[in-house]
Amino acid sequence: xxxxxxxxxxxxxxxxxxxxxxxxxxxxxxxxxxxxxxxxxxxxxxxxxxxxxxxxxxxxxxxxxxxxxxxxxxxxxxxxxxxxxxxxxxxxxxxxxxxxxxxxxxxxxxxxxxxxxxxxxxxxxxxxxxxxxxxxxxxxxxxxxxxxxxxxxxxxxxxxxxxxxxxxxxxxxxxxxxxxxxxxxxxxxxxxxxxxxxxxxxxxxxxxxxxxxxxxxxxxxxxxxxxxxxxxxxxxxxxxxxxxxxxxxxxxxxxxxxxxxxxxxxxxxxxxxxxxxxxxxxxxxxxxxxxxxxxxxxxxxxxxxxxxxxxxxxxxxxxxxxxxxxxxxxxxxxxxxxxxxxxxxxxxxxxxxxxxxxxxxxxxxxxxxxxxxxxxxxxxxxxxxxxxxxxxxxxxxxxxxxxxxxxxxxxxxxxxxxx
Length: 419
Ligand code: UD1
Description:
There is one protein chain. The chain is α+β, with helices and mostly antiparallel strands. The protein has 2 domains: 6-15 and 233-239 and 295-418, Enolpyruvate transferase domain (UDP-n-acetylglucosamine1-carboxyvinyl-transferase, Chain, Alpha-beta prism); 25-230, Enolpyruvate transferase domain (UDP-n-acetylglucosamine1-carboxyvinyl-transferase, Chain, Alpha-beta prism). The chain is built from 14 helices and 23 strands. The chain has helices at 25-34, 51-62, 88-91, 101-108, 127-135, 166-176, 192-204, 235-247, 264-272, 310-316, 337-342, 373-385, 396-399, 405-411, and strands at residues 6-9, 15-20, 41-45, 66-70, 73-77, 110-114, 139-143, 146-150, 158-160, 182-186, 207-209, 215-219, 229-230, 250-255, 275-279, 283-288, 296-298, 323-327, 347-351, 354-358, 367-369, 390-393, 416-418. The strands form 6 sheets. It has a 4-stranded mixed β-sheet, with helices on one face. The model has no long low-confidence stretch (mean pLDDT 95). The structure holds uridine-diphosphate-N-acetylglucosamine. Residues 26, 29, 95-96, 122-129, 163, 165-168, 193, 307-308, 330-331 line the site of uridine-diphosphate-N-acetylglucosamine. Uridine-diphosphate-N-acetylglucosamine binds next to helix 1, helix 5 and helix 6.
């Protein structure tokens, strides 16, 4: 991982080359949490080398779990795992730290952990997680930044999530597979990451019905066994480079993509933006002339357009031939990129959850600051569209989820460097 704190981006006239798409961050983090459910050794293949995975390893190590890494292979050994509270100094660095709550309750009937952190893209409460746990007979207390949960008898329940939260669905699943009796989760999230987690838990011996639907029926068992996992590609990283290709004349191969099933909406959006996408056996061939038509877009729960790619879409629309709009429906405070893009001479008006973007303005390089993972990546993409050099600072946010965006974009012929 690079220790420099900024990326310098030069304008790109064209993008050409092959980019290897890394393993999925949002899939691997819940799988890492799931390893706590059994006693034994798990090998995770295609595990991205990113900050969030490192912090998750440190959290597991707090509970005497052994982790070791060789390239993209991560080994987790939970044989000697034993209960320990998790400090806020670590949980506060990662939103997914909250996903350890479910497995800790399933394994030890108790958990004390600091509140989760993560990107500041809205309030990001955990009320749905906690309401579900309370239904499972868990006593939940919050004191300052510490959450204390106890259950002498973790009991399956019937619970209707008021919103299909990805994290809450994962967390409740992770507890329910080890609870007594049957749990029915209604209004569950259906994201690809949930499907992967369900399939993985089934491979461990969990009994789950309704996978891929919004009603999950889980029969608890105490016979879960460790098993290895081969991680899928990161659909958000792939989507970043796919959308980026719309804004610059491109001829790119996105390698390691076996199926585009999980990113259909993103592919459709890229096509709407003038990109030709051809699926080959192990890669996507992506070409464009760099002419972006203006349009109206909206984020939504899966299978709609993912909120995580909204900032990149916004940056790409700065090249559109007219005025476009993007409506954010998932997070209430995720259009903050407009302020940073304004420093590059972009013209974006925000009204509530909608951004109106004036395309074709001449963008000029400047110094901009990453304030969260996806916003930071979108600033790098915007830098490719500017005249002159753009410096993106605070790139620690980007490194939480992208292995090496400089390496990836250099593979596409772009001129970037760490500074
Ligand atoms: C996950 C993804 C994130 C993605 C998001 C939505 C990971 C590590 N992160 O985040 O990249 O942007 O899904 O696809 O997988 N909410 C509540 N109460 C809760 C939980 C959520 O009100 O208890 C709200 C949130 O504030 C937000 C919405 O529900 O407005 C969606 O959040 P959620 O689906 O939980 O996202 P995460 O799991 O945090």
